Amino acid sequence: MKRIIRKVALAMVFALCGGVFVANAQKLGYVDLQEVMVAMPEYKKANTDMEKYQKQLEEDLGKLQAEFKTKYEDFEKSANTTTATMREFKEKELRQLQERIQEFQQSAQEESRKKEADLLKPIVEKAKTAIAQVAKEVGYSYVFDANSAGMLYKPEGDNITPAVKKKLGLVDAPIAPPRQIAPQK
After folding, report:
1. 168, 40 in Cβ contact below 8 A?
2. Three-state SS at 160
3. Assign residue 153 a region: left if phi > 0, alpha if psi is -120 to 50, beta otherwise?
C-alpha cells in the first residue's frame, strides 16, 4: 500500500513539474529579414541612391585615371628628349598621382560602406519595429532571422515573415532575390 501511495505521489509531482515547464515554455518564431527589407519601397530607393552614389565615385575615379594616362603618355613621348632632371620630376609627379588614385579608391570604399549603412539604418529599424509588433501580437517570446547561421529546422507555422510584410503594407509584394548594395571591389 505504501508503494502505491509513493508511486501516485511521485506521479503527481512529475505531473505538476511538467505543467510548470509547459506553462513557462517560450514561443519561438523566425522571420526572413532580407525578404522583408527587399520588399520595402524604402529599400528600392536606397538601392537606387546607392547606385547613383557609386556611379559618381566611378566617374571621379575615371577622371583621375584618365589624367594619369594622359600624363604617362606625355612622359613616354618626351622621355628621350627631356633632361634627367625633368624626367625625375615627371616620374615623381606620376607616382604622386598614382598614390592619390589609391587613396581615392580606399576613401571611396570607406565612404560607400558608410553611405550604405546610413541608407539601410532606418529601413532595418522600421522592419525591426514591425517584427516586434507582430511578435507581441502573436505571442512570440523570441524571433530569429531565418538567414542567420544556426537555423537547422524551421517549421512554417512559426514563420512570421508574411505577417510582418502585411504589417508594413507589403501584402502583395513579390519575393525578390536580395540585391547587394555594397560597393563592388
Report:
1. yes
2. coil
3. beta
Q: Strands (DSSP E) along 61-147, which ranges?
A: 142-145
| Number of residues written out for the chain | 185
CA angle 90, 96, 99 (to 5 degrees): 145
- Kindly state the cell numbers that stand for 162: 508574411
pTM for the structure as a whole: 0.66
Other Cβ atoms less than 10 A from the Cβ of 149: the count is 6
Q: For residue range 39-77, what is the model confidence (pLDDT) as tens digits?
A: 999 999 999 999 999 999 999 999 999 999 999 999 898
Q: How far apart are CA 55 and CA 59, in angstroms?
A: 6
* Residue 68 CA neighbour count, 13 Å, CB half: 16
For residue 27, which of 140, 144, 160 has the smallest C-alpha distance? 140
DSSP 44-86: HHHHHHHHHHHHHHHHHHHHHHHHHHHHHHHHHHHTTTS-HHH
φ, ψ for residue 31 (rounded to 5)? -145, 145
Q: At what angle do helices 84-138 and 41-78 cross, to 10 degrees?
A: 170
